[in-house]
Each structure stands twice: as structure tokens, then as C-alpha cells.
Specification:
homotetramer; 379 residues; alpha/beta; Rossmann fold; five-stranded antiparallel beta sheet; Argininosuccinate synthase (chains A, B, C, D); phosphoprotein (chains A, B, C, D); ligase (chains A, B, C, D); arginine biosynthesis (chains A, B, C, D)
Amino acid sequence: IMSKGTVVLAYSGGLDTSCILVWLKEQGYDVITYLANIGQDEDFEAAQKKAESLGAKKVFIEDLRAEFVEDFIWPAVQANAVYEDRYLLGTAVARPCIARRQVEIARREGAHFVSHGATGKGNDQIRFELTCYALYPEVKIIAPWRIPEFYNRFRGRTDLMEYAQSRAPADLYLMTKNPEDSPSVPDVLEIEFKNGVPVKVTNVKDSKVTSSPLDIFSYLNDIGGKHGVGRIDIVENRFIGMKSRGIYETPGGTILLKAHLDIETFTMDKEVRRIKQGLGIKFSELVYNGFWDSPECDFVRHCITKSQENVEGKVQLSVFKGQVYILGRDSPTSLYNEELVSMDVQGDYDPCDASGFIRINAVRLREHHRLQGLSSTKQ
Amino acid sequence: IMSKGTVVLAYSGGLDTSCILVWLKEQGYDVITYLANIGQDEDFEAAQKKAESLGAKKVFIEDLRAEFVEDFIWPAVQANAVYEDRYLLGTAVARPCIARRQVEIARREGAHFVSHGATGKGNDQIRFELTCYALYPEVKIIAPWRIPEFYNRFRGRTDLMEYAQSRAPADLYLMTKNPEDSPSVPDVLEIEFKNGVPVKVTNVKDSKVTSSPLDIFSYLNDIGGKHGVGRIDIVENRFIGMKSRGIYETPGGTILLKAHLDIETFTMDKEVRRIKQGLGIKFSELVYNGFWDSPECDFVRHCITKSQENVEGKVQLSVFKGQVYILGRDSPTSLYNEELVSMDVQGDYDPCDASGFIRINAVRLREHHRLQGLSSTKQ
Amino acid sequence: IMSKGTVVLAYSGGLDTSCILVWLKEQGYDVITYLANIGQDEDFEAAQKKAESLGAKKVFIEDLRAEFVEDFIWPAVQANAVYEDRYLLGTAVARPCIARRQVEIARREGAHFVSHGATGKGNDQIRFELTCYALYPEVKIIAPWRIPEFYNRFRGRTDLMEYAQSRAPADLYLMTKNPEDSPSVPDVLEIEFKNGVPVKVTNVKDSKVTSSPLDIFSYLNDIGGKHGVGRIDIVENRFIGMKSRGIYETPGGTILLKAHLDIETFTMDKEVRRIKQGLGIKFSELVYNGFWDSPECDFVRHCITKSQENVEGKVQLSVFKGQVYILGRDSPTSLYNEELVSMDVQGDYDPCDASGFIRINAVRLREHHRLQGLSSTKQ
Amino acid sequence: IMSKGTVVLAYSGGLDTSCILVWLKEQGYDVITYLANIGQDEDFEAAQKKAESLGAKKVFIEDLRAEFVEDFIWPAVQANAVYEDRYLLGTAVARPCIARRQVEIARREGAHFVSHGATGKGNDQIRFELTCYALYPEVKIIAPWRIPEFYNRFRGRTDLMEYAQSRAPADLYLMTKNPEDSPSVPDVLEIEFKNGVPVKVTNVKDSKVTSSPLDIFSYLNDIGGKHGVGRIDIVENRFIGMKSRGIYETPGGTILLKAHLDIETFTMDKEVRRIKQGLGIKFSELVYNGFWDSPECDFVRHCITKSQENVEGKVQLSVFKGQVYILGRDSPTSLYNEELVSMDVQGDYDPCDASGFIRINAVRLREHHRLQGLSSTKQ
């Protein structure tokens, strides 16, 4: 039999993508499986053996952990990325990272097809595929969960997620402890930032220090997880226009968001911050919707990075029972001027100026009142 | 001696405004003191006696609690009002409420002057005065902390706030318990919303129900306070362009923000939500800066209120150790469609459509890639 | 033969939709043709006869001119709707108007299908269909130009538009004279607005007055057309992500845009205007992309309408050689205060206040400079 | 007599600033006059002599024309800078340019004071002073038109502008011909852009070529002026909250705005353009309000410059009777793909994808309709 060509399949080692692997072979494709290690809890060796035993022509296990943190999570930290005021975009940020390597493998191996196990109603299919099309425009994508012959045959399966959702959400969390069972003594951390990204974390109690991006992120996930930080149960709006319920946990990301917000406001000009806040919201929408690899996301990332040049300094915080409390901050580039703001020191600031400031701001309001008076008189 | 006229002084009963009262009389004014009860912990009777003993011509103690909640806090809840991603605007919302009544008294009493004890570097002076000018354009404002003869004489005082700030922030909190000392058993609440504002709160454990706006807000302050919810230590950007440190506690407001965000996303169309989010950020800036009584804030409030027409339903949440956890939500106007989003039910949704959706979204990205290829070829 | 059901076809009388009519019958459908009169130059009687002769079961010719102006063009005028800074959205606004009636007919006639002649790469297919789905969610849409059996058969046709585009753009304009050939004497108009829409137009020279919406719009099209106003040759970004070239003429719309911008700025508070400007840009994108009938467009229209409550008064303008020149404006609700702004009258305004205003605005800038000085010292 | 110190006065050669020069000397200051040449029609030699004869200690005439175009106008062109949809910011852009040099002179000459002749109700005072404070934070500013002793004495003067405004606006224009009197034959230009700024202008008829920034801008002012391009009569909102009437002419700026908009849309990704459009509006507000030298304006300029990297190519346009008509454009970096957009070539684009795209976009709209149906059923 002639092969229809080679497919690089984003493989998870689970039931779903194993079915897809077998089905793709049935359809006449040569299948290369690719499993990205972005820090998830997985038996990679077992997955490799499974893929081989199911007939994968080649098996790639790729350790993307460091580049995931540096190239994808760090920009999200700089952006204070939050979708719809609550979701910290964990999965949304992982997809382009995984797809980027998948495309690299496909090009290198001369594969004209890529495939994935994302379902036909979700966001992940879009995130995967937009990155694939953006970086490898001629690629053909095989999305079995959108192909009737596939999904009509496999739909009956007990889907892991569906199953999970029928259980109590509390059982779903993998990384975070239930805050009710978490330690009754806080951990106190000092996080040092440079250019808006963490460069060092010190545990004030045991003096433990971490300093590489991957170590920092892993450590914050551990500490956050231990104290039950970053659990949310939300309804969100998918890109395709459905509302769906999501249960997420982002322990390290939550600590970083709080710390970064703090050092950013401390060091960034007020009006720059306001503009940058709008760009951060835009960034979050783009990433959620799968447009990491787009000209507009490149542009926004560039602008946000520019805004972070002076975002440096240390934030002290305590992590306790699901919460992160900022204790203080310190920075060589701070725009906070204790003397200027003090009520006892007048310095260069003349309080009389405030009268003029207020009165000028009131010009418009008083005119508006005057006009309203006229309008009501007329009637 | 001829009186220079009558001043209505926003009086707190404290040292500062007592000094101002005496000083205004010295300057030749008749002084009416006005003390607004917006729910703060205050001995109003003692304050009244003190004002009288210091020579106030009249003393008004005004109970604004209900209108503060309904006319000022509820719109902030509808807006998800947060300044600079963190500050819930407690004080900022109180100022126009207090000033509005002050202006009413001044007009009624024929007073041409109003006065207050806000300092010359802060936001509160602006919030007070913009409302006064907006509602009573001809009023004259006496702001002693901006008048050299006054502040040069009184500057030496041990300012309460300054004093407080030199102590550990933990001692500053009045309404909230330290989460470390808070109960180790959560309270579970069900908050019912209608038109985006809470109309009923039920404590699931003891079945206690509150339903008037003032009762609801007080109760949520109690529950939130008991569990240490809503404490923040931030550096913020004042309207006048200084950064200042603020220690705030908004226990009830924090619970409401989380609950409202949840029911809003559950019931509001995705794209309406996005536009409304932008208006909410605008609203927060306006309120922080003192523009509650402005045409633009009226306009934004109108739009936000319109957006809340379908925001109704119940949110279940637990309050524990400084955190608020959403447990679930339920609404007759929800746009969440379990069947539509289910992975097992196809219904009217055709997964193949997603392929077209993604490919059309990729048209632009692929073109961009093509052009970049051309550019690099040229060089 | 059993009919497959009834289709309501948006019929133009031209070659394209005539082909579609015949093809739909071939496919086994009963076809009702529907031709909307939105003011285009068309022989409606001839079109009716043609449709009947080609086998249409029923033929509807609907005069939508008045509702097109009042329900669709007037909101666009209130919004100052312009897409990508240049395109005045003529066609984009017509589509939902046409589709709305089409859906009404389909429901009334018990038709489960609608069809149109829009091509598969354009915006109009989207505008048509989103309105159909929004107002008649169960409808089935037949878009022949996206169906291979159809377009492979008919693709070879000399497409009218394509043909047109190969000719000089100057020949494309139907409503507007070439400015080089237009009169060398201006027309001077006075347009009166109420609630942000024109209620009366007076030609100052010949005293001709028009006052119904349809008459006003037609008259402005005539005057604008006579003077060559509103021609543009642009490249625009379609919703589907392609750039395309467009040659448009909107003579009446251009006059109204200029006049409305003028009376709006004259009567609307500065900050309300700024917020409304953002909503207008949003509105334009939504309409361009086909989302006229969406919750977010309803919301934005509501907000914009609210903003227009005081937008009333008269604008004088001259129309000449492709341009519209504003000559003056007059309004009972104007916020323009000649005395306040005069350099010779001081009035209630104290110029000293401006010093304070400026100095407070400079606080932040001076601090920024101070910090930059420190930074450079460090290196 | 001891001098109070040295003032650098922004001198215009006119009556106003001559009065200020004399008055400053009366007050005991040494006065250095500084006259910036930014291309205005002025007898600089006469002004120099006048200043000397009035007792200026030193007289600086500075030719800022080239830096005005390159450092100030070009960024405004890149931004498509327009304030309140109509005003092209001519004066607003000139002020920081003039003030920047004034501060340099003050620092170099050891002057602690700067002064200007801008009035106390206008924008220019703010634009001047914010730049001065930003670049020279310790400077003292003397603004005579805000000092009662000065303005009470000089208020009676026949102010040039006031006088002018009482005459017909048509007489006010200095650079532009009345379109009614302008040539009846168009000029046709080709403007070549690189990085979003013009690098070459060719007059197609006489083959005249200009290529330095200053030459290009002067030439476009000439051509635009000759054809009466860029006249506006508007009411605008000043920063201080008053509405004022302005009569402006920006012939060269108007040509550049139209040409730049065209080449930008031709070469810039759609979504980048949308984000950049928002930044351009922000930029315009900042510049209008006098914040050219601010961290946020630096930031926005940086982002806008970044967006212009691919904005290159040629725009052909005709200038005629007050209008600019785009005739065509051409670019090596265009994202316009004639084949992709063609109705006759299918290429890689599958029209069926559009069906999926539309249906997915309709998911949300159909759900919304469903919910509305339920709501109305309930009642």
C-alpha cells in the first residue's frame, strides 16, 4: 500500500491520541508521534513505548520546559495576562509552544500533515492550528474530532474530562492543595524582577534561592500548590462563541501576577501603565483565541516588552491558605517619592497648585451644570 | 463683627476638622458642621456635642448609609470597579456621596462656602470639590490644608494617618480579621442578583437571609471581615501624579466583586462583556479621580446599567481565610448551554464548521508569513 | 417531483441572481424572489417580469427606502461611522436591512431556506447570513457561490464587478459627478439636527426645504452627487482577512458625516465625546463585519443614541468641487461659551488657576525626569 | 539695581511679546529673547532689531525647520494624528519643538526663568510649560498673561486673533488659496514612503522631485496651498475644558495624512492597524494636551514607530480644489494579494470555509436569540 504521507501527531500518551494514532495508520498515513514535556506530570517513557507499540514510525519526546517558561510564560507575566478578568491562560499559552515544535518537526521530517486530539468545540484546536498555519502555511491539518468517520465511531468513549467534571471539582485539582488542608503557617517569599520578569526568588524563612526561569516557575508552583493558591471555577466565553465551565489551577502564575502587578505599579509611570493595561487586555484576548503567532500579537508583545524596561526591584509577599499577600516592595527605579507624598514635608510641591488644578478640572463640569439649568428653564 | 458668611464644614469629629472649625470661626465665618454617617464606626453623639462646644452654629448628622449603598456602591458593583487592577475604590465612592449632601445643606442654609479637612496632596480634596463645583457651581471652597496661614500653623500635629503608617500595617485594619486568626471553617453564602445588584444573601449554614441593600452590604462586610477578606497593601497613582502607598480593606466589596464577575460572565453576551469591561475601567478611573458628578460618568453609568438588564441569578461561594471561592452559579437568563458545549452531544453544532472558521482566521496569518518569506528572500 | 422546500432568494434582477434562481429550481426548490428597493437605480418592473419568466413562484418587490434611512443610516450618522478611517459603510449598512425583510418573508411564507448571490470571498455573504441566523436561527442558507457544483459551472461568466474594475475607476461612479466637471458655484446648505439626526435641510440659495428622513437623504445625495462629493478609492481589510480594493461613492453620507461631527463637538461634553468616539469605532467594525443584529451592536447603538440627546442645532456648510466646508453652527444646547473663552473677558475664570493646573500636571513629568537623571548617574 | 535673574523669552516679534519683553525688564529681569523659525512667514532680521532696541540682553534666532519636520511632524504623520476627528495638530506639534530649544538655551545661558506670550485660557501655555517642566524641572516660568499686574494693564490691546476672528474667516488663511480661486487643473503627485514617512515626492506633470524632509514638507505645503487644501473651521475642546472655535489650515499635513493612511492600510496587517489606530488617537490627545515630552508619549511614539517598519511604497494622488484624491498605490511590502482576492481564481482559498466561518460566528447570535425567545415566553 502507498502511504498517503507522513503525519506528525501531537501525542499525549492517553486514550484519545492513542486512538487517533491507530486510526491515522488505518487511513494510510505514516505517523510520527510527538510528545511535548512542558512540565506536566507524565510517564514519558511509558508513553514512548506505547506509541511505538501502536505503530508510530518515529517518536519524539521534547523537553520544552525551559522555553515554555521563558518564551511563553514570561511574556504573559509581563502582560499581567488575564482573560475575562479571571482566567490566567495556562493552557492557552502552552498550545503555541507545543505547536511551534510540532511544526519544526514536521518541516524537518518532510511531513505535510499534522494532527492533534483537540475536540471540535474547544479553543485548543484553534490555538494549535493557527500556530501551525502561521508558521507552516502549506501544512494540512487532520483534526479527527472534526471528521465524522472518526467521531461517530469514537464518540461513545468515557471522556476523561467529561467524567472528571461529573465528579466534585475539588477532586480535579492536581497541583494545588485544598486551602482547608493547607499549612497554617505562611511561606514568605521575596521575588526579584528585572525587565518585568522574575530573576530570583528567595524564601525568607529557609533562605532557599532559585534563579533560573524554569527553577523559579517550578518553585512558585510548588509553594503556591502547597498553600492552595490559584484555584478557580469559572464560566468563560470560548472563541467560538459558547460559554463553558472551566476549573483551573495556576499556583505559580497567580503568585507572579500579584507580584508583578505590584512592582509594575511601583516603577512604571501612571499613564504608561494605563496604556499598557489596555495592551495587556488585548494580549490576553489574542492568546486566549490562539493568535500567539500573529503580526498583532508580535506587535503587542514588542510594545509590552518595551514598557517593562524599568520594571525591576523586589516584592515581599506571604503565601497562605489560598491567598497571596503583598508585604512590601523595593526598587532602584521606583517612581515613588516618599518626601513628595508626605503630608509633613512640603518640598517643591505647592498645595495651592491643587486649587488651580481642581478649578480648571471643574470648568467643564460647571459649564455643563449651567447648560442643564438653561435646558430645564426652557421647559 | 460682621460675619464673612456661612460655611458648611464636612466634620469628622476628629482633631483635624475640629481645628478647622475653630480656625474658620477665627477667620470670621459662621460654621455649620455636617457629619455624614456612611457606616463608619463613630460616636455621632459625642461628635455633635464636640462641634457644639467648639462653636458650630448648627450641627447636622446625616444618615447616608442607605443611599451610599444604593446610589454609590451598587453602581460600582455593576461596573466591577477596580482602579489600577487592585483598588476597590471604597473611599473614592464615599466622597461624592458625602459632598452631595453637603451641597444640599449649603444651598438650603444659604451658605456660600463649603469646607473640608482633606489634605493638599491627596485625592479626596479633588473628589469633594469636583462634586461641589458640579452641583453648586458658584460655591466658594475653603480648603485649609491648602492655605499657608493654616497649614503652617497646624502642620506640626501628629497626624493620625501618618502615625498609623509608621506602625505595622497589620494594626491598621479596622474591619477585617487577620486571616491567620480567622475561623478555620468557611462560611458559605448564596448571593442573588437582579439587574447586576445583589437582592438577597443567604447563609447556607444558618439560613440567615438579608435582603435590603444596606443589610446586604453590612452583612457581607461582617462575613468578609470575620474571614479576613479584602485586605490590600498597594502603591497607587494619585490623580495629581504622585505615587502613594495605601492600605485598604473592603471585605464586603471584595465578595461582591467576585460574585458579580461570576454571574455577569454567566449571563452576558461575550462581546457585550468586552465592551462593558472597557467602560468599567473608564468608570473606575473617573470615580477614582473624583468625576462621579460629571457628564461622562453619568453617561458611562447609564451604559453600564443598560448592560446589567439580564445579569440575574444566584452565585454560591465560600468565604475562608481571606479568600472567596466561587462554588457555582445558576440563572434563568444564562447564556450557558450545557448541551451545546457538551462533547457528547452534537446537536445543531457541526464540528466541520470549526475547520472553516479556523482556516478563514488563518488567511491573514498565512499571507503575513508569505510576505515575510518574500522580504527575507530579497535581502 | 417532490419539492425540497421553499427558498427566498435575494434577487437583484441581474445575471448572477437570475442564474441562481434557475439553478435553485433545477435543484428542486420552489423559489420566491425578493427584491429590495433601498434607493438604487433599478427597473423594478422589469426585474419582476424577469423573475416570473424564469419560474419564480412568487415575486416580492419591497420598498425599504424609508426604513433603510431611518433605522440603518441614521444610527450610522449618529455614530460617525467610518471603517478604517475612510470607508463610510454604505453597502455594509444596507445588507442587514435587506436581510431583515428577507427573513420576515421567509417566516411568513413558511420557507426554511434563504439564498443570495454574494460571492465566497466577500463581506456581503457574512453580513447577509449573520443577520439571517440572528433573526431566524433555524434557517438554512444556500450560498451558491460557495457550492462547488454551482461555481465551477458559472465561474467563467464575465463578472460585472470584475469587468468594471478593469475599466478606469472614474467610469465606475454612478451617483457622483467628476469634481473636475462639477459646478463652479457652491451650494450652501443648512442642516438642522435633533437627537443627532438631521430633521431639516434648507438650501440657502433657492430656499428649498426637505424634512422627511428619506427626502433629506435623497436630497443630500443629489447635492453631493452634483458636486462630486464622497468618492474614494481605497484598499480595505475584509472581515475574512484579505485586503481588497474598493471604489465607493457616498455623497449624502459624506455631507452628513461632516455636519454631524460639527454639531456633535459643539454640543457634547468633551469627555463624553471621547468615550463615544471609541464606541463609534466599535460600531463601525461591527457593522462592517456583519454584526448589525447582535447583542453587542444593540448595546453600542443604545449607548450612542443616549449620547445624542443634546446633539441638536444647525450647521451651515457649502458643497463645492468634491468638498464640504463647514461655515458655522448654532445650537440651543451648545456648550460653547463665547464669554468664557474670550481673551478680553475674564469673568469667573481665574487665569492663575491655570498655573496650578499645569504645575500639577507636571508633577509626574518632573519626577520622571528626576528618576532618569538618577538612572544615568548610576551607569 | 540687582537683577532678579535671567529670563529666556519666547519672542515672536509681535506686539504681545514685545510688551512682555519690556515689562520683564521693568520687573528687574535680564531678558534673552529667542525666536524660533519653524517655517512661518516672518521678517527675522526685523524682529532681531526690534528685540535689541527694546533692551534684550541677547537675541537668539534659531532655525528649527529641519528638526521640526523630522522630529515632530514626521511622528505625527506616522500616527495619522488627528484631534477630535478633524484637527491636524499643527500648532500643537510646534510648541514642544520651540520649547525644547528654549530650555536648551536657558540651561546653556544659566537662566533660571523662561517666559512666553501664550494666554491664560489656551492650550499653548500648557504645551510650552509641560515641555519646560519635563526637560528642566527646576525652571521657573513667568506667564505674564496669567499675572494680574500684567494682564490688567495690557488687556485693552486690540488682540490680533480677536480682531481677526471678527472678520470673515476666509481672510484668515495665510497659506491656502480659496478653493474657488484655485487652479482648475489638478496637480498629480507621487509620494514615496519608507518606515511610514515620506522620502520622495514627484510631481508627475513637471517631474519635479523633492527628497529632504524639509523640502518635501515645504513643497507639499506649496502644492496644497495652491489648491486650497486643508482648511477647517471647527469648534474644539481645549485641555482646560472650554470649547473654542478654531480656523486652521494644514495643506501639506492634509496631503500627507491621506497618502499615509493609504499606504499604511495597504501594507499593514489588519489587526496591527486596529491596535495602532487606538495608539494614534491616544498620541493625538497627548500632543494636543501638551504631553509631547512625557513617558507615555515616548512610549506611544516608540510603539507607533515600530508599527511603521513595513509601511513603504508609493502613493499616487491628485490635488484639486481643496481635495486630495488617491489614484493608486504600489508597494514591495504590500499585503494585498490580487490573486487571493480575485473572484475568478480560487487558488488556495476554499469558499466552503466561509460557511464554517459564518456559522461559527453565528453560534453566539443564535444562542442569544434562543434566550430572548425564552424570556419573552416567560412573561
